[in-house]
Amino acid sequence: MALKEYTWHFVAESIESLGFGNYDMVQAEVSDKTICIAKFNDKLYAFQSLCPHAGAKMVMGYIDMQGNAVCPLHRFKFSLKNGYNVTGEGYNMKTYPIEIRNGEIFVGF
Length: 109
Ligand code: FES
Description:
CATH architecture: 3-layer Sandwich
Structural class: mainly beta
Order of helices and strands: EEEEEEEEEE
Number of strands: 10
Low-confidence stretches: none
CATH superfamily: Rieske [2Fe-2S] iron-sulphur domain
CATH class: Mainly Beta
Strand order of the largest sheet: 2-3-4-8
Number of helices: 0
Number of domains: 1
Largest sheet: 4 strands, antiparallel
Radius of gyration: 13 Å
Mean pLDDT: 96
Helix content: under 10%
Bound molecules: FE2/S2 (inorganic) cluster
């Protein structure tokens, strides 16, 4: 199986400049996309900004104790690691690789 090749995009100068404040998730504009970035157990995760079920803004939801993004509208849950719909409704979320390089944040599409 061929590995996917990513184009890496600069997101922010630092984790602090992503602007989490007291929140678990933020939105960021990267290239021509709006993405959602979550912080969980000191790691960052990137994924689609709109819920794959009916398009609610994931940033309005929350992260549960198991590391799932919970949609604010119907509460479907998605693994931060791979976007898998852990509550079984069959709508998987698109995730993106995210890296910290010399303190700067990059995401791959
Ligand atoms: S819009 Fe997200 S679960 Fe329905």
